[in-house]
Fold this protein.
Amino acid sequence: MKKFVLVALFFLIFSSVLLNYQGYEIKIPELTPASTGVLKTALPNNYDDLLSLQKAFIRNARDLKPSVISINNLKELKRSPHPKLKQEKNFLSWFQGFLDKTFRKHYQMESLGSGILLTNNGYILTNYHVVEETDKILVKLSDGEEYNAKIIGMDSKTDLAVLKIFSLMSFEPAPMGRSDELKVGEWVMAIGNPYGLEGTVTVGVISGIHRSDLGITTFENFIQTDASINPGNSGGPLINLDGQVVGINTAVAQIGAGVGFAIPIQMAVDIAEQLIESGEVARGWLGVGIQELTPELAESFQVGADKSGVVVNSVETGAPAEQGGIQRGDIIIAYAGERVANLKTLQKMVAESDIGEEIPVQILRDGQRHQKNITIGKLVS
């Protein structure tokens, strides 16, 4: 009897579930204005500010696109002559060789990096390391148009180069900003062609300014950013929220992700103008070998509490430094009235000096301060 009751109860429950299942409808709630309102109230109070920031990124990526170019190397492929012609030294083998060299050259295109249009008549700014070893340069604009480009000048000491497109077309140059007004924490955007992916945009902030002693170039004054910079971004622009170029993306740190470096645009444009005008960069020259002032050397040379300056370890014969009275063992502590903090500081000061200008240089010799007036010479690269 007990079993019968349990079976009957199970049957009733099963029938009820089955009947309810057959009549059950699954309804997906519609998105109503009320639901949309709930979604919006869940966003931060500064939603409009975030939306404005997003619009600025979109606008800048669109507006700068025509001024950012892809730089490619056309590497000539060497073709082997037909085996029979290779063996036979006759007119036919000579004629085939002539045709191959003159009309049948074959190239393999390799993506190198990025660049920006400096002027409407086709001058392009990029990195030295992007174009230093190229057979033939082909630049590609955002609209797909391709042009052969010629190297106008290169400067390995700052890792900059200028190219030129020879065309009757008028190009759209990139708008320039002021890199000397950048603040740490400021939003920036990097545009380039990493890994051959044209027009790639990454966003970040200024992580640091005036970075040096990185071992990237001779004269360093880098902008540091966490906007992603990868192989192929080199030579492309770093831009601010106003859509102005403030740096030339150059390197990524090997120590980890999120650390990239760009050359300040004011420094880059100054170098570019000199390369366009004369094909070289004029830099000041003292003619001394220098080394950092270590604590041990500071104590040995009786340097005061400041412990700043650089040690002169050699003086070139006939150089401006020798003519001005600087000797081996002197410590240069000030240049043109400015304190010399380290080796890189002095190199930059001298390089930026006008050739032929007389500069007061303060030195420490045998514990005594002296001033020497040096007429700056020209550094020959």
